[in-house]
Structure formats: C-alpha cells, structure tokens
Design a protein that fits this description.
single chain, 732 residues, alpha/beta, Serine Threonine Protein Phosphatase 5, Tetratricopeptide repeat, Rossmann fold, 3 domains, seven-stranded mixed beta sheet, 28 helices, elongated
C-alpha cells in the first residue's frame, strides 16, 4: 500500500494551470485531492449543495433526484472493501457527503483495487455536483491518465468537456473534443461528443462547423436522440449563409438533409436579393422533393418570384440627370433614346413602345427613388443613369430590373447580374490603341508621359499593362505637374537629355532611332493656307519664327556638350485633356522628338487640340466610341436623321444612348417576353450588334465589348482608319 498519492491539475491533453498542485493525502481526515480537512470541505460542499438543490426544487417543482451514476462500462458488482460498499449505499440514498467520504477512504486503502477507476469517476461526479469544477477536472484527468484502458474514460472526458462548456470555454471544448474524437474507434459511442462539439461551435458563431457536427451526431444517434439531433441541425441550417449552405450540400448525401438544405438555400438567396439564384434552387427543390413538408411554401415562392419579374410589354424606363449641373448630358442622352424610339416604327411589326422618363438630378437618393417608381410601373428595363449610377444599379439589381448605365465608374457591372454597361472605358481605349500600334503600325517600343493625378496614373498603368500583354516594352515613363504649363524637364528626362554631358566624354554620334512611318503619318496635302500661321501663333497671338522652331533641339556641331535626344520609342502615350496635350505636343518637337506616333485618349477628338497643335500632330492616333464623319452607312443614316430632328451633329453620348435603346427594343421584339429575367438573359446573348457606336456585345458580367473607331489626323482633321483585316474583308 502506498501512504501517499500525487495529483495534478492537468487535463489529459491540456494544462489548466501553470502551477502543479501536489497534495499529500492525509489518513482518514483529509480530502484526497486538496489536503483540506474533509469535514470542512464536506461542510462547505453541503452548504453549496443545499443551495443548488433548493434552486432545483424551486425551478423544477419536484424533489431532487439522486445523482445518476449508471454509465456504460460501470462495474455493477460490489467489491469486498467496506468503505466502497458504504460509499455506494450512501450515493444510492442521496447522501453525497458520506459517499464522498467513503470513496476517499477507499482510495487510501485500496489503491490497487480494480474498482479504483470507478471510485475516481464517482468522486469527480460528486465534486461537480458540489460546484467544485476544478477538483472534478483534476480527478477526471487522473482517471484518464492512470487508467487509459478503463471503460469509464469516455464518460470522464465528456464530463470534462461539459465543465469547460458550462464555464464558457467553447474553444477549449472544440480543441479537446476533436483531439479525443478523431482518433477514437468509429464503432464506439461518439454521438454525445459530436453534440457537445457542435454546441460549442454554435456558441462561438461558427454555424457551418456546428451543422457539420450536428449532422455527424444525427448519423450516429438512436432513439429519441435522432429527433433531437435533427432539430438542432434544422435550426442551425436556418442560420447558415448561402455560401455555407452550398458547401454543406456538396458534403452530404442524405436525401432528407439535402432537401432541407436546398430549401434553406433558396430562402437565403431571397434574403440576399439574388432572386434568379433563388428561382433556380427552388425550382430544383420542387422538382426533386415533392413530398417535402416545405414543398407548398417553395411553390408559392416560385409563383411570387415569377409574378415579381413580369413587366408591361414593351415598356422601358429612363433615369437621366435632366436638371442640375449635368442636365446638358442627360438631355443629350435622352435625345439619342428618343431617336431610337422614333426608329422602332421602321423595324416592322407595328408594336408601340413606351418610354417612362425620370429625373435623377444626379442625386443618388433621387436615382433610387426613380428606380423604385419604375419598378412599380412595371417597366422591362431601365436606360441610364449617367451620374448616381452606383445607387441606381444597386436598386435595380435588388428589384431584378435590367439596367444599362452610361458611365465609366469602376465596378459598376460587378454590382450584379442585372447591371449592364454600354460605354467606352479606359480599358477599351488602351487595348484598342496598343493592339493597333503593335499589329498595324509595327511599334514595339513605347513611352508614357502622363499627369500626376488619378486620371493620368490610371491610364498609365492600364497602357503599360497592355504593352506588356502585346509583347512590347516601355522604355520611358515620366510624369508632370497637372497644373503646370512647362513640360521641359519631364520631356528631357524621357529623351535622355536632362543631365549635362561631361566634356571629357567627348562628342559621340548617337544614331537616331528611325521609325518606319506608315503613309498616314504624312500630311502632304496641307494647303498653303494651312501653313500661313502656326497653330500656337494663332491662339497665343505671338508671332513665331517657323524656321527657328523647326531647328530647335537639333544637334549643334558648334557645341560639344550638345547631344541628340535618345528617342528609344516608336510611340508616346499622353493621357490628358486637349488643352494640356496642345501645350505638350509642340514641346516634343522643340526637343527634337519627331517621327514618333502620338497616342491619346478620346478626349483628343477635339477642335481645340487641332487648333493648338495641328502642325505637330502627324502620326496621331486615338480610339473613340463614335465618329460622326464615319463612312459607315449605319452611322451616316443616324447622323442625318439626328441632324434633321435636332438640328445638330450627335456626339458619343447620343450615339451610345441610341444604341442601348435599340438593343433593348430589338431584344423585346425578338423575344416577345414579359419576364425581366428572360429579358436579362436575352441581352446577355447579344454579341454582334452593329451599332453607331461600334460593334457591341455583352460579356457575362454585363460589360460591353465594343469595337472602337480608330482615328488619325489627315489634312488638319480626324479621319477613320481601319485595320488590315477590316480592309481585306471589305474588298470585293
């Protein structure tokens, strides 16, 4: 026999305290764990137990029951030890203090007895009843450590997990529960562990993990526990997001559960205002699970969603800024839409279309209100807006109304599947510019001169990326002050002449980079009238010496330190407004940067730029969404009709609004649908609409994919050029 026992406060796999509690067991009169006089402990425990039992009586309305101790694996036979027998009888009679005393006495005198694990387990239960959770954990841990083969180990571990759970240590419950469950023989009873781990996950807000373990509990449960597990699983499924539900559906195989999850997924999509997804899921649900108790609700929801998506045939809404600072642009767009409406009578069919116009006032709240009103008026689609596009798009998406916006604002098509954008974007422009320069002009080396502001930086990055995509290189990148008028320093840096050349290096002839210029760079047909005065002279009123200007920057043989610029690029991209570009371009010539292509944005399609820098704009190339002087018959007819109706030449805004309206009108007529959902799907199928703003289609994200007009300078004005492939395809 051992005259002392050592205990610690470690829980099997985890440490509850940094300090190890080692206590010497006193004979008869001391507690086997704490060393305190046992009568003192029993007295304190009795007081606590009395309070607990009184509360149980108050809330349950019945007398307290003896502590349940019959667990799987417990030894029913009574050992010969008298202390153990006395403890068992005391426990049976609800005399918990006497039972604790007896089991403690038994442990001192019968350490090698086969019933030691049984005694330890019951002591732990008694400590827990008395509210001494730390002592209970210590005893259960000792049982787990010293008797790993005992049939009582699962019960001891479950008691530890329950104590941790009651104490709010949910993360510990998960960690220690998983560490015990996963290596355990699957044939053993693991259902209670699945339950408590799931409950801990649920308390932590990890609903998907909770559902997974409720599912495991349900699969291993029997009797009344089956319904308990199903109820918990069902309640947890109601808390799952659409993404979580989709994950869980892919991981389970039980038909009953899949039906439940599909129904919940449909409801989750509705809450997320993803009505198309909800319709798809609920349709599958009612087809596969006609016996499901939620079948009637799902059928009613499908009907409601179907009715919600209906619109009055051939009814189109329009949200534009018709008042406020952007009213001029809104009116121009409205003119384009009106022109499309007038043209529909010439398309055959004789079906009247209705346009309902709302003023957004460039105000997000007004735009959202307009969308709401148009929804109530049951329009099939909405054209616009231009400003406040994000608010209007979000509102239209929530209501399931296809909306075609006219804006460059980033991220608009990403709002949802009902949001379309038909507009020219920076990405379209730089892609068209770079592809034409590389494939048609043979350019491989590029420079970028850009204003140091958001607009310039955005275009710079987009252009650089496209150059790399097409196998080219960027040999020079310089920024300038967007408020400045003198661009000498960034130009000289770009050309390698910013720093003085040391005299001891001597004069070295650096060969000029000569570019193979296409015929369109030559402006040989300029009249004498065009040569009378320089554009800068005409605007500034300052007479200029043309010969001197022409020779500025060229190599001066009389100065040994004057070098030629290093023009290691075939084209230079300048993303700026016409007035600023008009100041920069002559300065390029001043520093002898000649015979390179000048690439700009659609803003360059301006008479202002031609007036300021026309003589120096040979080799200029831009990409634009509309060109009123195009030789396309479609464009010619549109321009003529527009001029007749409004007395002016249409621009890009009128053109893109006209094309957007025509796409909606034609799609409505071709499909003859009264469902917004079907109309949306039909719009997504457009891939080769021959519009006045270029050939247009929509990607799956609703972003327009357009063939832009490529423009160059000829005889002091912009003219359209075609790719070689286009020229070839147009030949007889």
């Amino acid at each position: 026999m051992h005259d002392e026992l050592l205990f610690d406060n470690e829980i099997g796999l985890c440490r509850l305290s940094e300090a190890r509690l080692q206590v010497r067991m006193k004979p008869l009169c001391t507690d086997p764990l704490s060393g305190e006089p046992i009568r003192k402990i029993i007295k304190m425990a009795s007081i606590r137990r009395t309070v607990i039992l009184l509360l149980m009586v108050v809330y349950s309305g019945c007398a307290p029951k003896p502590l349940p101790v019959s667990i799987p694996g417990s030894v029913p036979a009574m050992p010969g030890n008298q202390a153990f027998q006395d403890a068992e009888r005391a426990l049976e009679n609800g005399l918990y203090t006497e039972a604790l005393d007896g089991y403690s006495l038994f442990l001192r005198d019968a350490y090698d007895d086969p019933f030691v694990d049984d005694a330890l387990f019951k002591i732990g239960r008694l400590y827990r009843l008395a509210g001494r959770d730390d002592d209970a954990i210590a005893v259960f841990s000792r049982l787990n450590r010293e008797f790993p083969e005992s049939a009582l180990i699962p019960g001891a571990m479950l008691e530890i997990l329950n104590i941790l759970f009651d104490g709010g240590n949910f993360e510990s419950v998960v960690n220690y529960g998983l560490a015990y469950i996963e290596p355990t023989d699957p044939t053993l009873m693991r259902m209670p562990f699945f339950f408590i781990v799931a409950d801990a996950y649920q308390a932590m807000g990890a609903h998907l993990d909770a559902a997974r373990f409720y599912y495991r509990a349900w699969n291993t449960a029997s009797g009344a526990d089956v319904e308990v597990a199903w109820t918990k699983l069902k309640n947890t499924a109601e808390q799952l997001s659409a993404d979580d539900l989709q994950q869980l559906i892919s991981q389970v195989t039980d038909r009953r559960l899949i039906g439940l999850l599909l129904y919940r997924l449909g409801m989750a999509f509705i809450l997320d205002e993803k009505y198309d997804e909800a319709m798809d899921v609920l349709t599958v649900f009612v087809e596969r699970f006609p016996e499901h108790p939620d079948y009637p609700d799902a059928s009613d929801m499908i009907h409601s969603l179907t009715e919600r998506a209906r619109f009055y045939p051939f009814s189109v809404g329009c949200v534009l800024p018709l008042s406020g600072s952007y009213a001029i642009f809104g009116q121009r767009a409205l003119n384009g839409i009106e022109m499309a409406l007038s043209q529909t009578g010439q398309m055959g069919g004789g079906i009247p279309f209705t346009i309902i116009v709302k003023d957004s006032r460039s105000d997000p709240a007004a735009a959202m209100k307009a969308v709401d009103q148009l929804d109530q008026q049951k329009v099939g689609a909405i054209l616009g807006p231009m400003s406040a596009a994000e608010a209007a798009s979000e509102s239209a998406q929530a209501r399931g109304i296809p909306i075609l916006v006219f804006t460059q604002r980033d991220g608009i098509p990403d709002i949802g599947t009902y949001v379309f954008r038909n507009f020219i974007t920076p990405q379209m422009q730089v892609r068209s510019l770079v592809s034409f320069a590389v494939e048609e002009l043979g350019a491989r080396r590029f420079a970028i001169l850009y204003p140091d502001e958001n607009y310039g930086r955005r275009y710079m990055n987009l252009f650089w990326d496209q150059v790399v995509n097409y196998g080219g290189v960027v040999n020079g990148v310089e920024m300038y002050d967007p408020e400045g008028t003198d661009f000498a320093n960034p130009i000289k840096k770009m050309a390698g002449i910013f720093y003085d050349v040391p005299k001891d290096l001597g004069v070295t002839s650096i060969p000029r980079i000569q570019t193979s210029l296409l015929p369109f760079m030559e402006d040989a047909n300029r009249s004498e009238k065009d040569l009378i005065a320089d554009p800068v002279e005409r605007i500034s009123g300052i007479p200029l010496d043309r010969k001197a200007i022409d020779n500025l920057g060229r190599h001066n043989s009389d100065r040994e330190d004057q070098w030629h610029p290093i023009v290691e690029f075939d084209a230079v991209f300048i993303p700026d407004a016409p007035k600023k570009a008009g100041l920069i371009i002559p300065q390029l010539a001043y520093y002898d940067i000649r015979d390179v292509y000048l690439l700009g944005t659609n803003l360059w399609n301006s008479g202002t730029l031609l007036d300021m820098s026309g003589e120096y704009m040979k080799g200029t190339l831009i990409a634009d969404g509309f060109f009123a002087e195009s030789q396309s018959e479609t464009v010619k007819q549109f321009v003529a009709a527009f001029q007749h109706a409004y007395g002016r030449v249409p621009g890009f805004i009128e053109a893109v609004a006209y094309d957007s309206a025509m796409m909606v009108f034609q799609t409505m007529r071709q499909t003859a649908t009264d469902s917004r959902r079907d109309l949306k799907q039909a719009l997504l199928q457009i891939n080769d609409f021959e519009g006045v703003s270029g050939r247009t289609g929509f990607g799956q994200n609703g972003e327009a994919e357009k063939t832009l007009h490529m423009l160059r300078i000829n005889r002091g004005r912009f003219v359209q050029v075609q790719r070689t492939a286009e020229n070839a395809s147009s030949e007889p």
